[in-house]
Amino acid sequence: MSSCEQESHSSSSYTVILSPPPSERQSPWPAVFPIPVFSHNTELALRQGNEIYLREGTPLTSPRVKSDILERLAETMFAYTAYPNDEQRCAVAQALVDKHPCLKEPGSFSGMYGWQQSLKYKCGKYRTQRKALGSPELLINSLKHKLDDGKKPAKNIKKPKRAEVNYFPPHQPGETDETLENLRLELITASKRKDNVKTINDMMAQTYSLRRQEVVAQSPMVPELKERWPALFDPFQINEEFRRCTAVPLEPKFMFELDRHSPKLMQIFSDKGGAVGQRIKNLMMELIQDSGVSSSKKRDVTLKCLTEYMGESVQDLITDFHLLTLHCQMTPDYPTTIHW
């Protein structure tokens, strides 16, 4: 782990990260797609096929092997997203032929175009199978769940955005709309009590699937959402909800990227002229005058300079406040944090 990552991790170590329930995906789409292990017979055929391909350049052509590969790949891809896009299917095909060169297609410039197309149709069939098993993120797009003016197969398709991993998860085993609605009412009462962060976080995690149903299917206005889920608007829960949805810790990720881009940002700020440039230079003097300034202070100054650079008011967009008592107990030396 790099020093920037360590600092970012330590700066958010107060966050209670819980393991996601079994119904939620736990990882975003990987940078390098992991080709799964296929059936025993398929693995034997691939091993022999790779040896022959490296020796003679003859690709492996077996409908049975291809069918098994496509089935296993579709299952693995669904573990990351129900609706893989062209870029993701291309990445899977590339990883497949890299690991098993015998699967390269003769006559194809990339050697994998046919695999991309086959994955497209196989993923569609796999979604049909999962829809029959009651997958909520697929049922939401079925005709009976659409409004009367939108009952067409290709109209108003609800899909996750690029970073959304747990877009429309099913309820946890044993939970129903009724049990989660009762828990939501208890959550409203619990959110009014102080020093109750752990309990609230557990209840928010448990009711996540119900909350996503409301957000995706009903698209409520912010005041309505705030009335029904007041705990969601707590800074701590904003971080946790982002993690539930994307499987990425918001604050550590943000701090790491901020540290990584800070040198370039500071150079851009230094070149700014006019009244805005002068205000930025005044802010940057805090860093120039103190060579031993902490990483937390550097982040504060960088964000304030960025706000000025974008023509916004620092006072209107940034609020400094001390962390909740629980956070301070967990990391008593943690400095004041900036929240947007």
Automatic annotation (TrEMBL):
Upper classification of the organism: Eukaryota, Metazoa, Chordata, Craniata, Vertebrata
Ranges for region Disordered: 1-21
Biased composition (Low complexity): 1-13
Name of the protein this chain belongs to: Uncharacterized protein
Organism: Oryzias melastigma
